[in-house]
Design goal:
mainly beta, 3 helices, Lipocalin, elongated
Length: 312
């Protein structure tokens, strides 16, 4: 019994406890401590090997040791403002099918051709190759003007005579929800194909306040969207991005197409904040051939935009 007791107390020696009657300078129990040292060293070596193996496996799997602020961000929120040059053409036929006057929004109605424009986007990346993007484009927001008619104008069921002071308003918005898959992805580049839904929302108003005449048209055109996009890291903190989206409208007697081209240079201040300069061009042409509701809207919007992006 005494031997068992002495053995247990000796086994506790590594924690700093000593058997009764023994001093810290007692060398008789030294060999018992030495027997445990190789086991500890082997355990430490095993942990180091496992950590090194996990690190090597992660590096081999992802091809890099740290996450990239562009290619690996789980969520990115961006907002942009810029100057846009716009050309617009609109026509609204009478309810009996009489063809209306094709109006140049900038020349005939006096709408500003040079306006501020903006965009908001939220991009989610649940998996490395999968992204979901929600976007809202303001294509010069709420343009309005007053202009004297130089000839008779037929707009909807109203006729505006030459010399009338015409008040007009035009607002265009595009909403989009897009899913993209990166079929090419490496630490310095990414190329993806996308599919989604885009809706073009239009409000057009033409009237002569002096004669209490006004015609208002509100329409929304949802349609499928397809696209390609690419990103490349060409220097430390510097990236290039390009995106092309195409929308084909063919529903409820409405037909047309919409395309958008984006090209941008991005600088990352740190892992979470970036800023850039983009060139954006949006072209659209939508027609409605339904009797009593027929008409046409065509527009082109292009110009530079500055944007700020926050990512996590």
């Amino acid at each position: 019994m005494k031997r068992v007791k002495r053995f247990r107390l000796s086994a506790m020696n590594d924690t700093g406890l000593l058997p009764f009657g023994a001093s810290r300078c007692d060398k008789s129990r030294g060999p018992a401590n030495d027997e445990h040292m190789p086991m500890k060293r082997q355990l430490a070596a095993l942990l180091v090997l496992l950590a090194g193996s996990a690190s090597a496996e992660a590096q081999e799997r992802y091809g890099k040791t740290e996450l990239d602020p562009i290619f690996d961000a789980t969520i990115a929120i961006s907002g942009s403002l810029g100057q846009a040059w716009t050309d617009s053409t609109l026509r609204l036929d009478a309810s009996d099918g009489t063809r209306g006057t094709s109006l140049d929004g900038e020349r005939d109605l006096g709408l500003d051709a040079n306006e501020m424009t903006g965009r908001m986007e939220v991009t989610l990346r649940p998996r490395p190759r999968h992204r979901v993007r929600l976007g809202l484009n303001y294509l010069p927001a709420d343009r309005s003007a007053s202009e004297m008619a130089i000839e008779d104008i037929f707009f909807g069921d109203n006729i505006y005579a030459a010399g009338d002071e015409i008040s007009s308003k035009l607002r265009i918005r595009t909403w989009s929800a897009t899913y993209s898959y990166s079929f090419l992805r490496n630490p310095r580049a990414e190329v993806a194909a996308s599919v989604g839904v885009t809706s073009v929302d239009l409000v057009a108003e033409v009237g002569v306040p002096a004669r209490a005449l006004k015609e208002t048209e509100e329409r929304s055109f949802p349609a499928p969207q397809f696209g390609l996009e690419a990103s490349v890291k060409f220097a430390e903190r510097w990236y290039g991005e390009a995106r092309y989206q195409y929308v084909r409208i063919n529903a409820s007697n409405a037909s047309g197409e919409l395309s958008q081209l984006d090209a941008a240079i991005v600088f990352q201040f740190d892992h979470n904040i970036g800023a850039g300069l983009a060139y954006v061009q949006v072209d659209g042409d939508v027609k409605n051939e339904q009797l009593g509701d027929s008409g046409r809207l065509a527009y082109s919007n292009r110009g530079p935009q500055l944007f700020l992006r926050v990512s996590f």
